[in-house]
Amino acid sequence: MQTTDPGGNGQAPNNNNYNTNGNNISNDQGSSWSTLKARVLRWRGSRKLVLVIVAIALLLDNMLLTVVVPIIPEFLYDIRHPDAPLDSFPKEPPTLSPCEAAATTPWNGIDVTTMSYENASWYAERKERHKELVEETVEIGLMFASKAFVQLIANPFVGPLTHKIGYSIPMFAGFVIMFLSTIIFAFGRTYTVLFLARALQGIGSSCSSVSGMGMLAERYTDDKERGNAMGFALGGLALGVLIGPPFGGIMYEFVGKSAPFLVLSALALGDGLLQLVMLQPSVVIQESDPPTLKALATDPYIIIAAGAITFANMGIAMLEPSLPIWMMDNMGASRWEQGVTFLPASISYLIGTNLFGPLGHKIGRWLAALLGLVIIGLCLLCIPMATSINHLILPNAGLGFAIGMVDSCMMPELGFLVDIRHSAVYGSVYAIGDVAFCLGFAIGPALSGTLVKSIGFEWMLVGISILCFAYAPLLTFLRAPPTKEEKKSLIVGERSSVRYVTYQNEDDDE
């Protein structure tokens, strides 16, 4: 029996139509997959994607760096005084009842200074609390400094390592270590465990910072473009510093101590997956011979640029462990107030880094950094004059903006100095730059507690202000640094041939 088609023409249906439709679906799926694959390959060769990945890594690293600032001082005090946590202490002494007030004035009208038992107890407890908080400043300072000290030690190893295996593997290693550190912070309940978590973060930060900046310097060979790119990346750093303290203070106040660290660990996991898919960590051998770490570390112009980074960041590093405790002691500041006190500095740092990335190239990076150090000194002198949290807004904002001026100008300046005076391989010079940054954040918190205890909070800031004023004139030497012509011509040759061909090949593969 013959099967007819629906039209009644007596012909059998054509099964090729179904095969054709199936093939079309298969071809569409294959085409979509090919398009997606082509886009991923194009993104992998994109300089902008590398810039975004580096900025995210710096953002998360600095969120973890600063999220502990409003958490750790009060958390350590509370675990040592479980029956009398810090927030249970009244900010004002008990007020006298009318009967007690009348009892303090004798019949002859002569004023007699008396104090109720409750008032005497409040002042005694306040004095004891002040003593314990000052003692705790030393411990907090050492904990905060441990990250920078470890990073300081790791940098001279990470820099040369990037010359041998490239930037992507150390960058991914930095994510893994930071993730572990965040988890330890989330569940640590003792000073020792929290100290180890902070120190472990230093290794991860070294890998991320040195590899990230080196990767940007390698991809952005034009000096102006490099300055803009590094300004954007430092904007990620600034955003981390911006979000960290208020995020930590608010989450600790209303959710709990572990909450901010668990959120950070989830964000870090996302960044790690992005690196794994897009950067595809693998060994990459550098084409040109890198300068030795000794040659870079003994270059006076590199030392001047690195020193500016150290002194610019030392002031804010001293404030991190000491300012929250000073606010608790003098203003009775709450957790969230301690967190948001660094907010103006973070916002203005974000503005400063993005503004002076391109602007520093126009007016002279040496001049922008010099002005930045002067502004830092002036702002540090104003901070001890504050009597409320509102009075801290302007000096903190000026401090953050000025640090942004110095960082966004001196980081690309280091790459420029290597280009004109050595060879265009950047791992070691950004290891030195990161050492300079860490030196400020190691010396600052480590000395902060001791200086507050010995000479007081006010004189500590006067001292670091004088150092900033004294160092600023040295930046005039960076106005026109001398070049080494034979090395400069070699670098120009490499840029016009080897480096161009490398990126051209990547484009061809896409």
UniProtKB/TrEMBL annotation:
It is a multi-pass membrane protein. One of its GO terms (biological process) is aminergic neurotransmitter loading into synaptic vesicle. One of its GO terms (molecular function) is serotonin:sodium:chloride symporter activity. The lineage of its organism: Eukaryota, Metazoa, Ecdysozoa, Arthropoda, Hexapoda. It is found in: Membrane. This is Putative vesicular amine transporter. The chain crosses the membrane at residues 49-72, 165-187, 229-252, 258-279, 300-319, 339-359, 366-386, 392-412, 424-447, 459-478. Pfam families: MFS_1.
